[in-house]
Amino acid sequence: MSLREECGVFGIISPQTADVAELVYYGLYALQHRGQESCGIVVNDDGVFSSYKDLGLVGEVFSQDILSRLPKGSMAVGHVRYGTTGSTNRNNCQPIEVNHQKGKMALAHNGNLSNAMELRNALELAGAIFHTTSDTETIAYIITQERLKAPSIEDAVSQAMNRLDGAYSLVLMSSQKLICARDPYGFRPLCCGRMPDGTWAVASESCGLTAIGASFVRDVEPGEILVFGPKGEVSRKEHCKTRKKKLCVFEYIYFARPDSVIDGVSVHTARNRAGKILAKAHPADADIVVGVPDSGLDAALGFSSESGIPYSMGLIKNKYIGRTFISPGQSARLDQVRIKLAAIEENVRGKRVVLIDDSIIRGTTSGRIVKLLRDAGAKEIHMRISSPPFLHPCYYGTDVDSREHLIACHHTVEETAEIIGADSLGYLPADQLGVLTEGLGYCSACFDGKYPTAVLADTRKDRFERKLSEIR
After folding, report:
1. Which tens digits make up the pLDDT trace of 11-31?
2. Structural domain of 154
3. Which 8-state DSSP code applies to residue 310?
4. pTM for the complete prediction?
5. CATH for 99
6. Quick check: 34 and 255 in contact, CB under 8 A?
7. What is the percentage of the chain residues whose pLDDT exceeds 90?
8. 307: closest CA among 291, 323, 288, 321?
9. Catalytic residue among 7, 39, 192, 446
């Protein structure tokens, strides 16, 4: 089991009719690392919505022919998905589109609600019929309910936020407005930028803005609702500062692209700091430092800088294969590890290696990487992990929903080292996580079990995929 990440959202609103689908395409391409199961784009052409969604990578789903069929318009929203909640099928592709008495809406969502089942059960008992198994449809239902009573779509979003608990960064498009909202804890990142022609863009990460030539303006504040429409740009902050900030610290360790800046903190710098902390906390007598591509590279550079041990490229990544966590089965994941990474024998043969990676979940992937280096002739392998041990499930958008397969829950550090075949093992000290975020409030519940929200009893990723025998 490897760590699986959340999703990426992107939105655009132009002062004139433009090829907005192409801009969203490039934005989603830059956010591809956040989700590789499915993607979708919805275009607003003077109130008429046109969309295309399918399973696969952005470059596979949106061929030039498909993009050319989407009309020009003034607004568009897009989404790349990894399903932390809900199965992998076309029904769960986003953005979700809704038609109701007061208009229409397209919604893209990143994160997981901690009260999703409670909300969904109440909606179903009231007569709602669900077509997907994702939290996003629950959010869409609640916003729609509120919209039927509220004077505006932004008022509806604000009222809906009173009922939602957990992680959600939203990009929503109505007939006339583009709206983005971030939960009051700020679990998941969201930012906005502007192009020279006045076009506004909203993205999960700043790298999405850079991809379309937009200048970063600022991060969306936790609890903030930003409205782009006929009245210009309006910020609503009635939900701001109602909760302590709890940005997922793993955004800095693994999820985000290293060239992104989240809430004012460079992802590259945070990972580099993690490597330096590891060098101090868990030094090793070694010849070279090797990072596991991609998220281990920056930490490896930090470890090398702090320790004085030379950095060397010991592993090379096949750039044409997705991250290992995308495969649904363990055998498939191992097959992908074999073709995803290769050791550079000339650099590691006979060497004592410090191997830097971002995490150990089950231990199978780590064991395979250690074996790659052993087979290439590495003399010793001292593994260092740029995060603390995973000890608890995550309910806010990361696909770690059970302690059952977390190796650190069942084995000591020494036992884990033996299982993965390393000569030694060291994790980032949990009390040093604040150094990575420069003092910003963060969520580290997957490491320490301190959940910011109430956690329901049934939080399994597959909770909607029950067999008939289980519900009779």
Report:
1. 999 999 999 999 999 999 999
2. 7-246
3. P
4. 0.91
5. 3.60.20.10
6. yes
7. 81
8. 288
9. 7
For the chain, how many structural domains are there in total? 2
Does the pLDDT at position 441 exceed 60? yes
Residue carrying the six token digits 């990440």: 5
The one-letter amino acid at 247: L
Q: Is residue 461 a part of any domain in this protein?
A: no
**Residue 83: HSE in the Cβ half-sphere, 13 Å Cα cutoff:** 25
Distances (CA, A) of 453 to 115, 188, 266, 392, 463: 9, 15, 27, 14, 19
445 domain residue, yes or no = no
Amino acid at 28: L
Structure tokens that stand for 28 in this block: 């989603």
Question: With DSSP H G I counted as helix, E B as strand and the rest as coil, what are the percentages for the chain, rounded to 5?
Answer: 35, 25, 40
Catalytic residue status for 7: yes
| DSSP assignment letter at 230 | T
Q: Could you give the C-alpha distances from 12 to 25, 50, 58, 338, 380, in angstroms and in order? A: 11, 15, 17, 39, 51
CB 450 within 8 A of CB 407: no
Question: What does each C-alpha distance from 110 to 94, 350, 370 come to in angstroms?
Answer: 10, 45, 33
- Segment 128-154 shows an average pLDDT of 94
